[in-house]
Design brief:
The chain has 16 helices and 20 strands. By secondary structure, it is of the alpha/beta class.
């Protein structure tokens, strides 16, 4: 071996010292750095671990080659808990830095794959060795890179090491796939609403956070707009999941945005499912969101995906698209536009009849005035029906009871969050504390108002004020009311403009 720099040996400390050119017994000294690595941290806390065993074998080899001038450097280059598939290792970086600095003549490892399991990475490391005239020795494989046969053998062994690493990676992926198919939690970023049970690596429901998740789903059903839900969640002082990494660093705890709300609403974990490779499997954790709420939210998200959830004009009139159907063919009836500059009524026309062009059946057409007059007459009848009032009162009572229960839960959770943040002088915490205190006052006022309400009188009064309120609504709000009251409307032009309506939960009427 040809060292870059000849050194002398300090016999008292058995260390190599940089004191100019010298030899020991006319033999040049080759400074040997011992590199050790273990993929996991398991067992490293033992008095004699795998790294010590690797170093002991390397020292024994170097001692056996003392006559050739090999001397072990005292510096330790130990990487415990680092994979051989990457060169991002602290001890390896120090080793390469010392090689570049000219402080090492030979690198000794217990086995080739201790240095690297990647053929590409290993080739790069060997290139650095050769550039600085550093030899490489593997104790168990009994070869070095000072000759062509040693380099050939090294490449062959490393190819097998890389093959072994790929096999291990495939087995790991198969194991994770099997765990996912069985609905198990296999790690990742924690999500709002769940904690991770460290004993069995399972998701367990966090009571306070799960309430926030359910409320966010309910808010989206009310607002049907991501930005509105994000604003309301932030106004209440809520934040994304805050968690502590293994390195002791806090992650999360950020204000909500449209994107974060969207990802929360789309996450199948809340339905008790797990997603893996575009497949959904039943999870072993408890669901937070019921099936009906989940399906409604997904439907709205999908529908809003076409227009971004923006408030747009209803160009097809007040009647929601697809609600009016042709009795003869079952196709949708669409609203025709007025001819520019020509006054007159607009008509709903069967899509199939319109495709046929001129000469199609004119009975598959009805004026917008006729349709709206019939529907509004039926709505007036429903609003004045005592049975509808009674059902509305019962549903409202149930809803008010649920609101009071939810507000009470939020009040308790907010108090716990406030007590956990008080005493912290961070500026962002002070701002959140102010938001939380404001929200507590709002909750108290809302609970007192709900407890004072006389539902039957309020509901009756609201129904009596229905038409003045109706006249002030925009087309989108009116369409929403129609969708909540009417299941479908069927037009039969062959029977004197007969409209058949089926109302939701109420007997339909013929006009």
């Amino acid at each position: 071996m040809s060292p870059k720099e000849v050194v002398t040996l300090d016999e008292a400390s058995n260390t190599v010292c940089h004191r100019g050119s010298a030899t020991i017994d006319n033999v040049r000294v080759a400074r040997c750095a011992i590199y050790t690595r273990k993929s996991t941290e398991e067992g490293l806390d033992q008095e004699f671990n795998s790294l010590d065993a690797q170093r002991e074998s390397a020292e024994a080899f170097i001692l056996s080659q003392r006559s050739e001038g090999l001397v072990a450097l005292p510096h330790r280059y130990d990487d415990g808990g680092f994979s051989g598939g990457s060169i991002d290792r602290p001890a390896l970086k120090r080793l390469l830095d010392d090689i570049v600095a000219g402080a090492i003549d030979c690198v000794v490892v217990y086995k080739v794959d201790r240095l690297s399991r990647s053929l590409i990475d290993f080739a790069r490391i060997i290139e650095i060795f050769e550039r600085h005239h550093v030899s490489f020795v593997s104790v168990t494989q009994q070869f070095n890179t000072t000759n062509s046969l040693g380099r050939l053998t090294l490449n062959i062994l490393l190819s097998f090491a890389q093959f072994e690493r790929e096999i291990i990676a495939e087995r790991t992926r198969d194991k994770l796939s099997a765990a996912r198919r069985r609905g198990k939690w296999i790690g990742g970023r924690p999500v709002l609403g769940y904690d991770i049970d460290s004993r069995c690596s399972r998701l367990i429901v966090n009571t306070d956070e799960s309430f926030q998740v359910r409320t966010i789903f309910d808010l989206y059903l009310d607002y049907t707009a991501l930005a509105s839900v994000a604003r309301e969640a932030n106004r209440r002082g809520w934040r994304t999941k805050l968690w502590l990494t293994k390195q002791g660093v806090f992650q999360g705890g950020q204000p909500f945005t449209k994107g974060r709300i969207f990802r929360l609403l789309r996450n199948p974990i809340y339905r008790g499912k797990v997603a893996f490779r575009n497949q959904i499997y039943d999870g072993e954790h408890e669901a937070i969101i019921d099936a009906r709420t989940w399906e409604r939210v997904q439907h709205i998200l999908t529908s809003n995906g076409h227009d971004g959830g923006r408030e747009v004009r209803n160009r097809s009139g007040v009647l929601p698209k697809g609600l009016l159907r042709c009795a003869r063919c079952g196709e949708e009836m669409i609203l025709t536009r007025r001819v520019k500059g020509v006054p007159g009524r607009r008509y709903y026309v069967c899509v199939q009849a319109r495709r046929l062009g001129r000469g199609h059946d004119r009975t598959a057409r009805v004026s917008e005035f006729t349709v709206m007059n019939a529907i509004l007459s039926e709505v007036r009848r429903v609003v004045a029906d005592p049975r509808v009032v009674a059902r509305t009162v019962a549903k409202t009572e149930d809803r008010v009871g649920t609101l009071i229960d939810n507000l009470t839960c939020e009040h308790k959770a907010t108090l716990r969050a406030l007590s956990g943040m008080q005493g912290n002088a961070r500026v962002d915490h002070l701002e959140r504390i102010s938001q939380i205190e404001t929200r507590l006052e709002e909750i108290d006022q809302e609970i007192r108002r709900l407890n004072r309400e006389t539902l039957r009188g309020d509901v009756t009064s609201a129904l009596l004020r229905f038409w003045p309120v109706w006249n002030s609504l925009n087309s989108r709000d009116r369409a929403g009311i129609f969708m909540s009251l009417i299941e479908r409307v069927v037009y039969d032009g062959s029977i004197t403009n007969r409209l058949v309506m089926k109302l939701r939960g109420v007997a339909g009427g013929n006009q």
